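agent> fetching stored inputs for the zinc ion docking request
agent> found them:
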Amino acid sequence: MPIERSEELGVKIGLEVHVQLTALKTKLFCSCSANYRGMPPNTLTCPICLGHPGTLPVLNRKAVEHAMMVALALNSSISPQMFFFRKNYFYVDLPKNFQISQYDKAGGAPLSTGGWVEFSVNGERKKVRIRRIQLEEDPARLTYPGTITSAPYTLVDFNRAGVALLEIVTEPDMETPEEAYFFLQKLRSILEHLGVSSENMQGSMRCDANISIMGGARVEIKNISSFRDVRRALQYEIMRQKQLLRRGGVTKQETRHWDEDRQITVSLRVKETESDYRYFPEPDLVPVKIPEEWVSKVASQMPELPDARKERFISDYGIPEYDAIVLTSSKKIADFFEECCKLYSNPKKIANWIMSDLLRNINETGMDVTEMSITAEQFIEMIKMIDEGLISGKIAKRVLRESIRTGRPPRIVVEDEGLLKISDENVISKLADEVFREFPKAVEDARRDRKAVNFLVGQVMKKTRGRADPDVTNKVILSKLEENRAIPSRS
Ligand code: ZN
Ligand code: MN
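agent> prediction call returned; pasting tokens
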């Protein structure tokens, strides 16, 4: 199906990203451990995060500082005074029946407002505005056996209840699913560079997307678990809404769930409006003053961010801007690149191998870069094996592919599969003799036409599954053709 240009469809995409501040040791309003991953369910709880009546929340100062770092990195203006609000709703993941959150209306002020993120989409710069950033508590974690729509019961784990969350809301400035994908990638790289949220933790960054096309109603897609799926869910929604509108239907304001297994969105409920949440100020928490001095103190401790790192890559390593953008799109890859540069003196070559082969293979397997197990040492060892003539560049590509798929270091793949390059003339000579016997016609041709030599070289390559040194093979075959020529042929 031809994809129409998004301007014609008037696609408007906004994102609401929930980011766990995973670097914090404790929860947002109590001293329970925030490190719940891998812990037995319902073991990291106390009366506060279980919402017992009469308990009082106490704000985690570090959480505010980490949130301030994010606001500064996203060019968002920090409120001199912020308030917490109650967002009321009744659901099993929320024992108090309200979430302590923030609100930008009714006299409320969230942590910060405004701001922007600039990123690159296929070589073009794109700027997406931030509407607001707020602090709130994570609800409990729900597990649905099977799928959300068919599960006979739900399991609740309160270990996650009360973990510090940032809600980052953008303006609907994105026009394609691609832009949403690259926005998230850039945001994640910024968060990872700040060290406030770890990208390799399952569920540490959760995204809801709202989308409208051709001026229709805004549809919100909930619970999308990966960036890749954000792109897919949006692509699906554009298609669904387009077909609906074409048939004369109207899109209604609703919340849809992204069904990962079936790769479709399903209607969950007709959208509740803000007033349904009955927001009101949280009487158990005082307003928080954020004086200028506190902001500048936090600002002075900010680490290097992806944009600055990109510039440094260009000046320090002499690589093109495009390479620097790709390499800094993930902290893991940027760190990996710099480690490699300590071990090997050709940054451009390293960049090429990372971008063309490493990242491509990771993408092809559907893996995330954070799951990559190859180390800089192993990677450079492989590049050095090419330099030393132990393997060919072509074999190296195959080795890397295998290494990424299986997690085995390249050197081991080379050894296990006997992929060392064959440059022994005697071995190649024997193989060439076989080829000469098998293809007498081609040998005749090759004596007249040098172009036909390639066929013979190719046959030796085939016998060695690409391991024969092409230069040596070429040389051996040419000298054999000369020998043949020396024998006077009887005509
Ligand atoms: Zn607690
Ligand atoms: Mn929220």
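agent> quick read of the result: The first strand starts at residue 12 and ends at 20.
agent> awaiting further instructions
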